[in-house]
Amino acid sequence: MTSTTQSQPSRRERGKFSLPSMPWRVTILYLSVMLLLPIVALFAKASTLSPAKIWQIATDPVALSAYDVTFTTSLAASLVNGVAGVIIAWVIVRYEFPGKKILDAAIDLPFALPTAVAGLTLATVYSDNGWIGALLAPFGIKVAFTRLGVFVAMLFISLPFVVRTVQPVLQETEIDVEEAAWSLGASSSQTFWRVVLPPLLPAILTGIALGFARAVGEYGSIVIISSNIPFKDLIAPVLIFQRLEQYDYTGATVIGLVMLLVSLVMLLGINLLQAWGRRYDA
Amino acid sequence: MTLNTGTTIDRSNPNLKNATQSGENSRLKWVLIGFVVFYMSLIIFIPALNVFYQAFQGGIAGFLHTLTEREFLNAVRLTIVIAAIVVPVNTIFGLCAAWVIARNQFPGRALLLSIIDLPFSISPVVAGLMIVLLYGRQGWFGPLLQSLDMKIIFALPGMVLATAFVSLPFVAREVIPVLEEVGPEQEEAAKTLGAKDWQVFWRVTLPNVRWGLVYGIILTNARAMGEFGAVAVVSGNIVGKTQTLPLFVEEAYKQYQTQAAYTAATLLACLAIVTLIVKEVVERRSGLKRGTH
Fold this sequence. Notes:
The structure holds two protein chains of two kinds.
Chain A: H1 9-18, H2 22-47, H3 51-58, H4 61-94, H5 100-106, H6 109-112, H7 115-125, H8 133-136, H9 147-172, H10 175-183, H11 188-217, H12 220-225, H13 236-245, H14 249-281
Helix pairs in contact in A: 2-14, 4-9, 4-11, 7-9, 9-11, 10-11, 11-14, 13-14
Chain B: H1 2-12, H2 15-57, H3 59-67, H4 70-103, H5 109-121, H6 124-135, H7 142-147, H8 156-166, H9 170-182, H10 185-192, H11 197-226, H12 229-235, H13 245-254, H14 258-286
Helix pairs in contact in B: 2-14, 3-14, 4-8, 4-9, 4-11, 6-8, 6-12, 8-12, 9-11, 10-11, 11-14, 13-14
């Protein structure tokens, strides 16, 4: 099988494709069993229901309000992080100051910290007698166990995305171009809006989309900081969980299907954004 | 060339404008740094500090007491067992997938890459749901598994499957860019010199991608030990049997055993800090600053 002589590497290469080599077999088999089979199972389970039934469950008032809490709050959190993320990336790339290394490393904490821990500590810090919650309570602002708490958890979970997509692009842009713009008489704000921002735009949008996708699917931190009450702060993933706990597999499947379809659309959108971003690389 | 001219123009500009600009810039710099520190304190630093503060608030004795509780020890053991299965399996898959994508051009390559990324965009709860629909009592394999007297849901195998699902992309994601950067030349040279496939892999490919691989493995491990949503769906959260550390944290919190919850949380937070330190080391060694997935 591998009896090719040293002088014929090309034939050996071709041999690899006629019979898929080990890495190919492992990749295809593993993805099929671990990833595609479960997805097919969800679609198959949904296909046993009539479209009218699916529509009825998917547009149930509790489900509609859960989508509203999930998607609106995720969008708000990822947009806020879109602005904050650009500022954070800017500060890290352009400025020198003590503690910068720690700041840079801490941005990845939401990737590394288990979500249950994040939910636990956010729920404590933002509760009425917590470190930050106690400062807000006199103003009548309640964070933990409200929709605002869901928002804070989503801010935490989606923080790193915009920073990490914008940072490398910002590192590559030449300060010279900005200096040229200034020297040609542009004001600071003109320089920012006309020179600095446009090349960053694909990276910013990609980061916002990634953060949004992450926030939409988040369960661990939110189930702890939210009171999980329908029409108030119940998110769609928690609703799926509750349906499963009640052995309502049909209900769980339909809402799961809605969430899966949204994920697939998001993935497509992110791919398109990244393709757009790559055009700037050349 | 044109940029040089730009600088010359800059020098010949009235100094006044430059002076006000640099003053403005220095003020802007500290305003922006202040904002970043404030924002990150609210969302990251204060909550992170709070984990350690709460764990030791009831004194070191309470902290140590939790560490010796049987439920806690069971949760630690189960968390380690799951990671010990998932991390090697996902590492082998990740290396294979990275090689397939980085070393081959074929139609559907971009699609394959997107498929590998799927677990990042699918909600962990939906991932758990899909595994229940597949292996649960009412699922596709339900009758078969029942006749074989095998239990997957509410047992270790289901938790391993759910954890493997959510942590599947990390190794491939980290190794692919490194493999692409290194290029196939060294591997081809080794093959030409008569090295067998596995020799090329161990002596050439693996050393070349080692830092990306280390980072991929450490991320897989962090996610495997910290996963909550997907595992919660398939585990049934049976105390002492199918309770991992993150599930222990939530359960203890719900039972108002705050210190027990924070003791377990401290352990997981230390895991996160180790992960961040390894990331820093890897970036310094490899001289790369990589973006996110």
